[in-house]
UniProtKB/TrEMBL annotation:
Residue ranges annotated for the AAA domain, each copy included: 32-166
Source organism: Desulfosarcina widdelii
Protein name (database record): ATPase
Domain of life, per lineage: Bacteria
InterPro entries per the UniProt record, alphabetical: AAA_14, DUF4143, P-loop_NTPase
UniProt domain DUF4143: residue ranges: 222-358
Coiled-coil regions listed in the entry: none
Any Pfam family matching the protein: AAA_14
């Protein structure tokens, strides 16, 4: 095994790192913490590591950079007791580097049972900077913080944002240029339904669907079924299909429980809640609570459900492109979720789609219809008055405007323009 590790280390160092698109994930390359990149499978964690390695290689001796992918079949037999062979192999290759600062990149390390003990010891005893990635639920959520006991900085990796997708397409974002705006809108129409999984970008519809099904099978079987010992696979698949067809929808556990029971599924409410939790841990689907000061009130109200990528709705729904309102709202959620997990919806007499860090946001495909315009502005006006906000945001397909209400100002922006920004609210 030691010789295999030496070969993998040297082969990577001797071969050029694949060119990757820069992601908007500002993780540090030199810190006193273990940098952990987590997220749904195939979201680009490996590519983010390789881009970092490429940039490091401009100023750091490539021999001081170690990259190992634990999904490599040559490492299948590697056990926790043998992980120390990684250090032995490297220092036998480069004995003078023992006192130097080195950079260690461990991709999908959760495949090794007990990996966290080795990483903790390595962090405490070696001088290097450690980066790890993981897709399965075992490396996500609270378990990561527990396993590494405050030694890690955690960064989430999602499929490409619209801004990153434009970068991939070599589109310059210049909102003051008519030509640039036209090109951005053209690419947005495709991104809206086809999503941000990079491997799908240049493929035919048929190939895209096959890729997405494979991705989903990995999430279902490796990250949920195997990890949590799920026995009712039919129910899990049915739940996934329901959620992916109906993103940006209010879901009540009680109503869903009764609906599934009426369809013949043997299910308990606790099982349903557990399955939602598993999907959240695997970054496949997310639930957003109502904003209330009481946690009990939050739990009593329905939650809004969003999915990791719009392409999954198209996978299950042949008419996904016609449901642009839900697709717009799901994109807005993902843009917000990349920046914060603290997302709510707000409701008094009327509902506001998002309440995030003091910002109120509604999403509507169009407000050309007077009744739609009144509904969207009325809900934002009520929420601003209740929460003491003076500004809010209304995202639409095309409209840009400023609307004054009794409680404050509503900034109306095209959603594609807002997605080009890295900030929560762009006015």
């Amino acid at each position: 095994m030691k010789n295999i590790l030496k070969r993998l280390i040297v082969d990577f160092q001797e071969n050029p790192v694949p060119k990757r698109i820069a992601r908007d994930i500002p993780f540090p390359v030199d810190s006193k913490k273990i940098v952990s990149l987590i997220g749904v499978r195939r979201s680009g964690k490996t590519s983010a590591l390789q881009h970092t390695i490429s940039k490091l290689g401009e100023t750091v001796d490539p021999k001081k950079i170690v990259y190992l992918n634990f999904e490599d079949d040559r490492l299948d037999s590697l056990a926790i007791a043998e992980l120390d062979l990684i250090l032995e192999a490297y220092y036998e290759l480069y004995p003078l580097h023992r006192e130097s600062r080195t950079y260690w990149f461990f991709d999908e390390i959760q495949n090794i049972e007990g990996w966290e003990k080795f990483i903790r010891r390595m962090h405490d005893t070696e001088k290097g900077q450690i980066f790890i990635t993981g897709s399965s639920a075992k490396l996500l959520g609270s378990e990561l913080a527990t396993s590494l006991r405050g030694r890690t900085l955690r960064y989430e990796v999602f499929p490409f944002s619209f801004r990153e997708y434009l970068r991939y397409q070599n589109v310059e974002v210049n909102l003051h240029s008519s030509a640039s705006r036209t090109l951005i809108k053209h690419h947005f129409d495709h991104y809206l339904t086809h999503g941000g999984f990079a491997e799908c970008f240049d493929q035919s519809d048929d190939i895209q669907r096959r890729i997405l099904r494979d991705y989903l099978d990995l999430v279902i079987y490796r990250d949920i079924v195997d990890r949590f010992g799920v026995t009712n696979r039919a129910l899990l698949k049915h739940l996934i299909k329901y959620l992916f067809v109906n993103p940006a929808t209010l879901v009540s556990y009680n109503k869903l429980y009764n609906e599934f029971r009426s369809q013949g599924f043997k299910i308990s409410k606790d099982t349903l809640i557990d399955y939602f939790s598993y999907l959240n841990d695997a970054y496949a689907a997310f639930s957003v609570p109502i904003f209330r000061k009481s946690v009990r009130e939050e739990q009593r109200n329905p939650k809004k459900i969003y999915i990791i990528d719009n392409s999954y709705k198209r996978l299950y729904d042949a008419f996904a492109g016609q449901d642009t309102g839900k697709l717009y709202e799901n994109l807005v959620f993902l843009h917000l979720r990349r920046q914060t997990p603290d997302i709510y919806y707000f409701k008094q007499a009327y509902e506001v789609d998002f309440f995030v860090e003091g910002n109120l946001i509604n999403v509507s495909t169009t407000i050309d219809n007077l009744s739609t315009r009144q509904r969207e502005t009325r809900s934002l006006d009520e929420a601003m008055n209740h929460l003491g906000c003076t500004e809010s945001l209304l995202l639409t397909a095309e409209t840009g405007a400023t609307i004054k209400t009794k409680s404050g100002t509503i900034h109306v922006l095209p959603v594609w323009e807002w997605l080009c920004s890295l900030s929560l609210i762009q006015k």
